[in-house]
UniProtKB/TrEMBL annotation:
Belongs to the bacterial solute-binding protein 1 family. Residues 26-48 are annotated as: Disordered. InterPro entries: SBP. The lineage of its organism: Bacteria, Bacillati, Bacillota, Bacilli, Bacillales. The keyword Signal applies. PROSITE patterns: PROKAR_LIPOPROTEIN (PS51257). This is ABC transporter substrate-binding protein. Residues 1-22 form the signal peptide. PANTHER family: MALTOSE-BINDING PERIPLASMIC PROTEIN, MALTOSE_MALTODEXTRIN-BINDING PERIPLASMIC PROTEIN. Coiled coil: none annotated.
Amino acid sequence: MKLTKRMLGILLLLGLMLVLVACNNSSSDEPTDENDSNNSEEANGEEEQVTIVYARGVDTTPASEAVIKAFEEKFPNIKVEQREMPSDTGQSHDQYVTAFSSQSTEIDVFNADVIWPAEFAQANYALELDRFIEKDGINLEDYFPGTVQAGKFDGKQWAMPQYTDAGVLYYRTDIVDTPPETWDDLIAQAEELKGEEGTEFGYLMQSAQYEGLITNAIEFIASYGGEVVNENNEVVVDSPETVKALEKMKEVVGSDFVPSNILNFMEIETENAWIEGKSVFARNWPYLMSSSNDEERSSIVGNVEMTTMPAGDAGSASALGGWMTMINRYSEHPEEAWEFVKFISGPEGQKISAVEGGRAPTIEALYDDEEVQAVSSLFANPEFREVLQTAVPRPVTPIYPEISDIMQIEISKVLTGDQSAQEAATNMQTKMEAAMNE
Ligand code: GLC
């Protein structure tokens, strides 16, 4: 049979339709950028209402609520539902890994500890943000370089910096004349001043066996000149400096000016005891300033200042912490998720979280803002920007959870008196080398 032009046309059309149907049905695993079902609504001129789920750790300040309120006012078509994760970053981490490794679409946006992006990027849990950043002309140079770096892996940006953390020393201005400069000075003042103005303790810190212990330990280690992993990615933790630092840490934890259950203390226990007015000094992150001045919860409003951490032989050191915002690779609303990420990590969102939550911005220019400066004298002090920028990072590697576990176990054994500081240093060295060379 001879095909007429018309029949050929019909056949081609049928073929094309088959291909289209096949494409639509091949329920691909890949996340889609656009939600096709929305098109008709948009064509009708109605703005589609989307709810995104934002997961974050416990926030004892009003900051998260305030940021979301401001966002929803600006983007009335996007509703943000919050999902509260545990306050212990390690526990949160494990819950995210469970959800994301099964490609759950439940969470759209999540807060990520600075130690996670490398691991989450490698495991394919997150969406690369570069195309959004480019599209919206976000200038990453406005941010502290270290905080941008923490969200980078394999040359791509996986996370936007939301706020940065550096360990700081809190003290009671109604008790302390001159805040301590060194660890020995802190020990002396904590012993001497404990009991004044109704306090029970001289010092509070985070020494439970969890991630916060690592940040406290890193501050001791760096202040005595030690390092865990050097810039060439070599494990160098077994050093006389580490040993001296861990001995000092043990001296503090074993003293009678800390609570007898200090080995159960995380940030939340520190915060509760501190705002109840129970201690002269405390180590925590900048947010505690906001809780300290919260009229409803705190009994020490107006009597708190923060300063840099006490120095060891090599000076004062703060551990670098902080939180980034990431998008679940399998989010069904990546565009709206990005809108929220952009807001919360942008100048408006960061200012709200500084003013309402005492969180340290990652955008340098915000430190010139008067309302941000009013949060604490440290925020107004240009030297604090230095502290933030020179804070000591934890090793950046996709196997960070393993490294952290090794340190948690070995350092805890020193604090409980089950091994010496030297034994811990030797064991950490051997175990970390093995983990990194696997
Ligand atoms: C803070 C820091 C985070 C750190 C955690 C440890 O949340 O921002 O980086 O891992 O404390 O408890």
